[in-house]
Amino acid sequence: MKTPALWSAQAHMPSIIDRQIRVVSAQGAYLTTDKGSRLFDGTSSLWYSNIGHGREEMAQVAYEQMRTLDAYHVFGRYTNDRAVELSEKLVDIAPMDNAKVILNSGGSDAIDVALKLARRYWNHIGRKTKTVIISREHSYHGLHAYGTSVAGLDFNREGYGTDSLVSGTERVEKHSTTAFAEAIERIGAENIAAYIAEPILGTGGVHPPQEGYFEEIQKMCRDNEILFIADEVITGFGRTGSMFASTRYGLQPDIVTFAKGVTSGYAALGGIFVAPRLWQPFFERNANAPIYRHGTTYSGHPVTAALALKNLEILEQESLIERSAHLEQVLSNSLSEIESHELVASTRVGGLLGAIELRDIAQAEVITDQLLDLGFISRPLRGNSVQISPPFISTDQEVRSLVEAVRYLLDDIQPARIRA
Ligand code: PMP
């Protein structure tokens, strides 16, 4: 039997081989497939097509940058105009004062660089036992070695012969400050480097923070000298109606990871913001200052940086973050109408991120497949939930229609259930 050359990501290959969806083009909030279907991008691809697809001005920026400087690295003494400009811009909008920026190629990269830096920092200041990383159940932090090891979705951590690829990781219940306190007690603050959390837990089912949760967690981090890392790979750059969710939820992180929305997906870029107390030792004008031995070939890539700068300019010029805040309200109103449906267990919304959690009889995977026939892309998330996270350029009606399409499909299941 012929099998495809491309080994798809996170896929049960035998199940998808005969039903792959081949996307050939995209414009605005819509994709076109090789079969000629036009589909509404109800998830912004993997939570990132915030400014929408197919922007001419983005293509133009990439073209012009390639003609000036196609690529050059930022190792050692080398830097380039776009990497410098982007870093200055990012520091301006960062959810912390006086930040530094490390650039790389995506969210998983950002997680590796953040967690390595947390350990490296404590090691440098002589607190060598502070190495354990605490994360939350149902969290997702990408799939490089650190992300795999801290994953709160167990299936992402299984099958590597050991419990985790990177040693010294622990998970705590996602909304429990008591669980965090117990973990600190059990492990010992002197052994803990950092706590990492998505401000809104994304792939784990879209769970916004509960009132007061992060406030208390941050206090415990401060009291126990544990670094607080906000993983804003999904929430950064306007997804929650402010530039960063850290601002919206009053977080004061020591490190923030970002990716996706920094370029709206037009190029592969991720990175981290680092707070002064962490970067200062590495910048001291002193021969004994340590080196953070991390870097990847495409860190500070000029074409990628030029695209990020243009993306940030578009967000501002078209007031798309305000638009995202507005669409959150539209989504929230639509979800409240479907919430009482017999087959809906609950709905959740935080920023322009929503989930419809279904009761057992209605399967999120089946609904997601059927939505395609109605022209909408969605995605099943953990906990039998349907993901809704459209581009910021979507119309109010498009957002409402997606929720209405889910209702239409649930209405169809309902009579069958009553007959049974
Ligand atoms: N952190 C979070 C919160 C994410 O949602 C993701 C990707 N969905 C990542 C990290 C990893 O990013 P990437 O896939 O770009 O490596």
Automatic annotation (TrEMBL):
SUPFAM superfamilies: PLP-dependent transferases. This is Aminotransferase class III-fold pyridoxal phosphate-dependent enzyme. Its cofactor is pyridoxal 5'-phosphate. GO terms for molecular function: pyridoxal phosphate binding; transaminase activity. Gene3D superfamilies: Aspartate Aminotransferase, domain 1 (3.90.1150.10), Type I PLP-dependent aspartate aminotransferase-like (Major domain) (3.40.640.10). It comes from Halomonas icarae. InterPro entries: Aminotrans_3, Aminotrans_3_PPA_site, PyrdxlP-dep_Trfase, PyrdxlP-dep_Trfase_major, PyrdxlP-dep_Trfase_small. The keyword Repressor does not apply. Belongs to the class-III pyridoxal-phosphate-dependent aminotransferase family. The keyword DNA-binding does not apply. Keywords: Aminotransferase, Pyridoxal phosphate, Transferase. Transmembrane segments: none annotated.
